[in-house]
Design a protein that fits this description.
The chain is mainly α. It has helices at about 5-25, 60-65, 80-90, 115-130, 130-150, 150-165, and strands at about 30-35, 50-55, 70, 95, 110-115. The longest helix is centred in the N-terminal third of the chain and has 21 residues, at about 5-25. It starts with a helix and ends in a 9-residue tail after the last helix. The model has no long low-confidence stretch (mean pLDDT about 90).
């Protein structure tokens, strides 16, 4: 959480979204994973149902015990590798539009995009309350990551791009 957009997003989710989720799903638990959780504004108070795990060594165990992955990023740039990571583990994702930038997922099929606190809470609640929907969305996201973002696919696409832009040997100095 030393990266400001991650810290701001986590604090936003804990302060604005999480209370709305807990009102509808009182038994829900939020695991805030990542290094340096002490940098979060809510770390010391540890709101109801929130656990700060810190750095996670065993991602398989974390995702096995996770129903929904959330990316509440409100600013910043770049591809959100954690969104693709959650999808690779077959978990449904709720994200802001900014949090899903650069990832070619279809809203309501492979991800739920929600840009306000109420909308984000409702998206999380819908996946927490509908296990079948959560499983289906997670499987769709996993399929998309495997199809579009696998190492083999990226290497193949990069090879085609380089080949199509290759400078002919006769043009080289």
């Amino acid at each position: 959480y030393s990266f400001t957009p991650n810290r701001v997003g986590a604090d936003y989710f804990i302060e604005q979204v999480w209370p709305l989720v807990r009102m509808r799903v009182p038994r829900a638990k939020l695991i805030v994973a990542g290094a340096d959780p002490h940098l979060l504004a809510n770390f010391a108070s540890s709101p109801a149902g929130v656990m700060f795990s810190g750095y996670v060594d065993d991602l398989l165990a974390l995702y096995r015990d996770t129903r929904v992955a959330v990316c509440p990023i409100l600013s910043g740039g770049g591809t959100r590798l954690k969104v693709m990571e959650a999808a690779a583990y077959g978990r449904p994702i709720v994200s802001t539009t900014i949090g899903a930038e650069g990832i070619d997922f279809i809203d309501t099929k492979e991800i739920l995009i929600a840009d306000g606190a109420t909308e984000m809470a409702n998206a999380c609640i819908s996946l927490l309350e509908d296990h079948s929907k959560a499983i289906e969305m997670g499987l769709q996201a996993r399929h998309t990551v495997e199809d579009r973002y696998s190492r083999e696919r990226i290497i193949s696409d990069l090879g085609r791009t380089l080949a199509s832009h290759a400078v002919p040997a006769s043009s080289r100095a």
